[in-house]
Automatic annotation (TrEMBL):
Residues 1-233 form the Hen1 N-terminal domain. Keywords: Magnesium, Metal-binding, Methyltransferase, RNA-binding, RNA-mediated gene silencing, S-adenosyl-L-methionine, Transferase. PANTHER family: HEN1, SMALL RNA 2'-O-METHYLTRANSFERASE. This is Small RNA 2'-O-methyltransferase. The lineage of its organism: Bacteria, Bacillati, Actinomycetota, Actinomycetes, Micromonosporales. GO terms for biological process: regulatory ncRNA-mediated gene silencing; RNA methylation. InterPro entries: 3'-RNA_MeTfrase_Hen1_bac, Hen1, Hen1_N, Hen1_N_sf, Methyltransf_12, SAM-dependent_MTases_sf. It catalyses: small RNA 3'-end nucleotide + S-adenosyl-L-methionine = small RNA 3'-end 2'-O-methylnucleotide + S-adenosyl-L-homocysteine + H(+). It comes from the Bacteria.
Length: 457
């Protein structure tokens, strides 16, 4: 992925002093995910351009636990600007981000003419403009078209920013807003990210009209972190009551509400031996282990990487033997029969079915409801009707979702599955409901009828 910074301030080659990178050399830096290079395609008295090129090594990328198996190799990370590029900015231009220059301190404090280009950036023209224009940039965001035989525009833009700003301010705008536009950080977002956001956003974020959207996306939709960040910004620019009610609230995060709803459903059916199907990195497994009612817990996933993450998260290697005997991790594909999953009190498919191609969904139904036949099955999935409440969201909530259903579509599917495989089913919402669109998540609780027997596909 590529980013260029150009100035026409004379002498323009002073850009090398501000970036602490000599224009006559190619500079390279090893990054956790590849190699970053800084070079100068033009360096004259009247115009100078510095280019930051990040060469991503797919083998060094960590596939997201909720992504498909080949996502480590099949993705847009090598070319679309993201948090990977922001991390490279932070390492390569550390002094410039701080506004420090040993050789040109007066120039570092001065607003100079700048032109910044990011040739491939995920985001709409409208959102890119909303984020950069309030900061003093003239924004040109040109949608990148698909190939002629496909037609139409992709979800990427070629971004050109022009303005007269301090270089440090320009770089900090990019450091924050590149991952905000990509909306998918490549690393775990911990509370120390709040400090990074406030430091990089000093002097501009508090007054930005989209500060709530920025905080939410920069902090990976972790509402508790975004709330804290916004509270710390209030000293400069109070958040209005109306704004604070939109994406950032003081309520429990939706993921936590969803987990609690699943635990309540398990308690409702009196389950003790539980399957977490599509367990990912183990968020629900951790909650199940803390509850003594669950005497046998199995986490199943097709991804060996996800199971490794779950094992680390649960600290299985350090777990006491009695506790360790309660849990087992198995690698399996949910669209195939696996006798190891037979006969449990309950199975949970929490935010799983929407990651399966619709033509393969009947295979999962046959495997879980027809062969494994747990006493109860709990399924959660997004309610697509609620998506209108997520500011800036276009399309589905996650790039790996194959579908998202309305409440009526989910209820129809649940009723058909229950009838086909000998279960009764009830559906309910999870999260704060809207009068028109319903709750953000929908849950189905299937309970096996006493007379039902194994149904083969």
């Amino acid at each position: 992925m590529l980013l260029t910074v150009t100035t026409t301030h004379r002498p323009a080659t002073d850009l090398g002093y501000l970036l602490v990178k000599h224009p006559d050399k190619v500079h390279s830096f090893e990054m956790p995910t590849g190699t970053a290079y800084v070079m100068y395609p033009e360096a004259a008295e009247d115009r100078c351009t510095a280019a930051l090129l990040l060469d991503v090594d797919p083998q060094k990328l960590r596939a997201r636990a909720d992504a498909f198996e080949l996502s480590q190799y099949v993705n847009d990370r090598p070319y679309a600007a993201s948090s990977l590029l922001a991390s490279a900015l932070s390492k390569v231009f550390r002094s410039a981000l701080r506004g420090a220059s040993k050789d040109r301190p007066e120039l570092a404090a001065e607003a100079i003419p700048l032109e910044i280009r990011v040739p491939v950036l995920r985001g709409s023209t409208e959102l890119v403009t909303r984020l950069f224009a309030p900061l003093g940039w003239a924004v040109t965001a040109t949608p990148l078209p698909f190939e002629p035989e496909i037609g139409g525009d992709s979800r990427y833009v070629d971004l050109l920013l022009t303005g007269t700003l301090r270089l440090a301010d320009a770089l900090n705008h990019l450091y924050v807003l590149l991952p905000v536009l990509d909306d998918g950080k490549h690393y775990w977002v911990a509370p120390d990210e709040i400090e990074k956001l406030l430091r990089a956003g000093s002097g501009w974020l508090a007054g930005h009209p989209e500060r709530i959207l920025i905080a939410r996306r920069y902090l990976a939709h972790r509402k508790s972190l975004a709330t804290t960040a916004l509270e710390l910004l209030e000293a400069d620019q109070p958040v209005t009551e109306e704004e604070s009610e939109l994406p950032v609230t003081r309520k429990a995060p939706l993921a936590e509400q969803r987990r609690d709803a699943v635990l309540a459903a398990l308690a409702e059916v009196g389950a003790a031996r539980v399957l977490d199907l599509g367990c990912g990195p183990g968020a629900l497994l951790s909650a199940l282990l803390k509850d003594a009612r669950f005497t046998e817990i199995v986490g199943a996933d097709v991804s060996s990487r996800a199971l490794e993450q779950a094992a680390r998260r649960l600290r299985l290697e350090r777990m006491a033997p009695r506790q360790r005997d309660r849990i087992k991790l198995v690698q399996t594909a949910l669209t195939y029969h696996d006798d190891r999953l037979n006969g449990y009190d309950a199975a949970v498919l929490m935010e799983v079915i929407e990651h399966i191609d619709l033509p393969r969904l009947p295979a999962l139904e046959a495997s879980v409801f027809g062969r494994a036949r747990p006493g109860a099955v709990i399924v959660t999935t997004p309610n697509v009707e609620y998506n209108v409440h997520y500011e800036g969201l276009t399309g589905m909530r996650h790039s790996d979702h194959r579908f998202e259903w309305t409440r009526a579509e989910f209820a129809t599917w649940a009723n058909e599955v229950a009838e086909r495989y000998g279960y009764t089913v009830t559906t309910r919402g999870v999260g704060d409901p809207d009068e028109t669109t319903g709750a953000p998540t929908q849950l189905a609780l299937f309970t096996k009828t006493e007379t039902s027997t194994e149904v083969t596909a």
